[in-house]
Amino acid sequence: MGYRTIVKDNDPFKTLHKKCRPVTEFNQKLWDLLDDMADTMYKADGVGLAAPQVGTLRRLFIIDVGEGLIEFINPEILQTSGEQDGSEGCLSFPGEYGMVKRPNYVKMRAQDRNGNFFEVEGEELFARAMCHENDHLDGIVFKDRVYRMLREDEL
Ligand code: NI
To answer: Above 90 in pLDDT, residue 155?
Structure first.
């Protein structure tokens, strides 16, 4: 078990706004990072966490929308369709929520922790989470895509 500090938007290094590099080594260091990220995400009650949010500028994230943990390494969006409109937040922006439009269906390809490629598709919350987390790898945060922030009485 290991918890990592979640990088917030006031981070002086602007970590959340930088583009991440691909993962090239599938080794113990990567597995420790993934395990720590899962502990950190569950402790914070999140449904997704990307590596830059724990200070590592590498292309990987994890998601658990209630159907089990999935680790995405070097992910790529293969296909999207439809549209959904809903509220979104981020562990790096505690207490802030806003309305973001996302595709309703997303198909991705990624590598698992051993480097094996897999494909996964999802709709609604899962699709939203894949888009949100994938954005983090390009230095894009949800507030860059929000068209309206929510007030406290709307949460
Ligand atoms: Ni986020």
So the answer is: no
